[in-house]
Write a structure and sequence with these properties.
The complex is a heterodimer of chains A (113) and B (111). Helix content of chain A is 0%, strand content 50%. With 113 residues, chain A is mainly beta. In chain A, the strands form 2 sheets. In chain A, strands 2, 4, 5, 6, 9, 10 and 11 form a 7-stranded mixed beta sheet that branches. A 4-stranded antiparallel beta sheet of chain A has the order 1-3-8-7, with no helix packed on it. In chain B, the strands form 2 sheets. In chain B, strands 2, 4, 5, 9, 10 and 11 form a 6-stranded mixed beta sheet that branches. Chain B has a 5-stranded antiparallel beta sheet with strand order 1-3-8-7-6, with no helix packed on it. Classes of the chains: A mainly beta (113), B mainly beta (111).
């Protein structure tokens, strides 16, 4: 069981470039999430997907798009990267419901110059 | 709006001490509270999850308590070790899908 995996681990972009962060889980979880972590701000939810085929905005969705490709995979796309999107991005997954223990991937460190 | 606060922001203790990390939240309408550990440059590891109907959970040297009415949780670490050095995050589940995180307590345990 790999758990939650993310690619790439590191990425440097120039302002205006686009990229997609990939996330996959092998725990048969229904729900998947994208967070960003910034110093002094804690983790903030960008988007989440409660089930295959559905996505919803979180606290900080502007500048991002997501795709729930299937039950296993949930991608995050930056169409036109900005320096304010420099952050560490974490993907997580959980079994939906009141218990909802979330399991996290190792993160992607993104720098936008 | 739910806000989660963790105090202190940083803590440095000698090995062997028992210590308490604090987490407070402003809205008591939560489904559960989860404590995580984060090592530098790594992802989050779930330590303990307390359901809203529970008062505490234990795992090894860790014990987490929850007092919903006062909006507080504590993480108790017994007999601390250098390997416990990490950042500890608490998060409350608002709705069935939205975790709200605190900013963490950075713990250093020195030999």
């Amino acid at each position: 069981n790999a758990g939650v995996t993310q690619t790439p681990k590191f990425q440097v972009l120039k302002t205006g470039q686009s990229m997609t962060l990939q996330c996959a889980q092998d725990m048969n979880h229904n729900s998947m999430y994208w967070y960003r972590q910034d110093p002094g701000m804690g983790l903030r939810l960008i988007y989440y997907s409660a089930s295959e085929g559905t996505t919803d905005k979180g606290e900080v969705p502007n500048g991002y798009n997501v795709s729930r490709l299937n039950k296993r995979e949930f991608s995050l796309r930056l169409e036109s990267a900005a320096p304010s999107q420099t952050s560490v991005y974490f993907c997580a997954s959980s079994i939906q419901g009141l218990y909802n223990e979330q399991f996290f991937g190792p993160g992607t460190r993104l720098t936008v110059l | 709006k739910q806000e989660v606060t963790q105090i202190p922001a940083a803590l440095s203790v000698p090995e062997g001490e028992n210590l308490v990390l604090n987490c407070s939240f402003t809205d008591s309408a939560i489904y559960n509270l989860q404590w995580f550990r984060q090592d530098p440059g790594k992802g989050l590891t779930s330590l303990l999850l307390i359901q809203s109907s529970q008062r505490e959970q234990t795992s090894g040297r860790l014990n987490a308590s929850l007092d919903k009415s006062s909006g507080r949780s504590t993480l108790y670490i017994a007999a601390s070790q250098p390997g416990d050095s990490a950042t500890y995050l608490c998060a409350v589940l608002r709705d069935t899908d939205k975790l709200i995180f605190g900013t963490g307590t950075r713990l250093q345990v020195f030999p």
